[in-house]
Write a structure and sequence with these properties.
This protein is mainly alpha-helical and 203 residues long. The protein has a single domain (5-201), classed as Orthogonal Bundle (Tetracycline Repressor, domain 2). The protein is built from nine helices and no strands.
Length: 203
């Protein structure tokens, strides 16, 4: 049985406490990387570029983040957690307090806004060979959230299966293809998501 909303697994978590110097190095690296990505785009930024901008050795960068995909995940962490916080405790309809179908619509619209800002970084974050939804933390969280709402809005459906099918439409690569390849505006993307929710949640 699907757990309640209060049991949603938060991606990331606190983990072991960092030493003060390690935390400072991490912040310096992420600040330098974010500035480079803002200027050049993630595809134009190498690990060597980040190491030079942060004044650290390239080996330090690889030890800390593993590779460019790991660095991209770290850059996304703050934005991902902020969105999760809104889902758990934000104002309705994104947060609790609205009907499940309205929350589903708000989730998709909010996630499309996140994609609009960070889809290239999300694609880079899974360059190791999977899709963004193969990243276990975010995908587990969003899949559970959507399945919980579906179970309330349309209890006759297989909520977990439909949740995964709906989330597949929000893959970062698909978002970029729709926006850059097909030229679809963001409002069309949001309207399409709302129509999907209406279709699956219909009595």
């Amino acid at each position: 049985m699907i757990a309640g909303v209060h049991e949603l697994p938060v991606a990331g978590g606190d983990g072991p406490r960092e030493r003060a110097d390690a935390a400072r190095n991490r912040l310096r690296i992420l600040t330098a990387a974010a500035e480079l990505v803002d200027r050049k785009g993630i595809d134009g930024v190498s690990m060597d570029d980040v190491a030079r901008a942060a004044c650290v050795g390239t080996g330090t960068l690889y030890r800390r983040f593993g590779d460019r995909a790991g660095l991209a995940l770290a850059l996304l962490d703050e934005h991902t957690k902020a969105f999760q916080d809104e889902l758990i405790a934000g104002a309705p309809p994104l947060g609790p307090g609205a009907p499940a179908a309205e929350r589903l619509k708000a989730f998709g619209e909010g996630y499309i806004e996140l994609l609009e800002r960070h889809a290239p970084l999300m694609v880079a974050a899974v360059a190791r060979g999977g899709g963004w939804h193969d990243a276990p933390g975010p995908h587990q969280f969003y899949g559970t959230h959507v399945a919980i709402l579906l179970a309330e809005a349309a209890p006759q459906l297989d909520a977990q299966f439909i949740a995964q099918a709906l989330l597949a439409t929000l893959a970062p690569g698909e978002h970029l293809r729709a926006r850059l390849g097909y030229g679809w505006p963001v409002e069309r993307m949001k309207a399409g998501w709302r129509s999907l929710v209406d279709a699956v949640a219909r009595d």
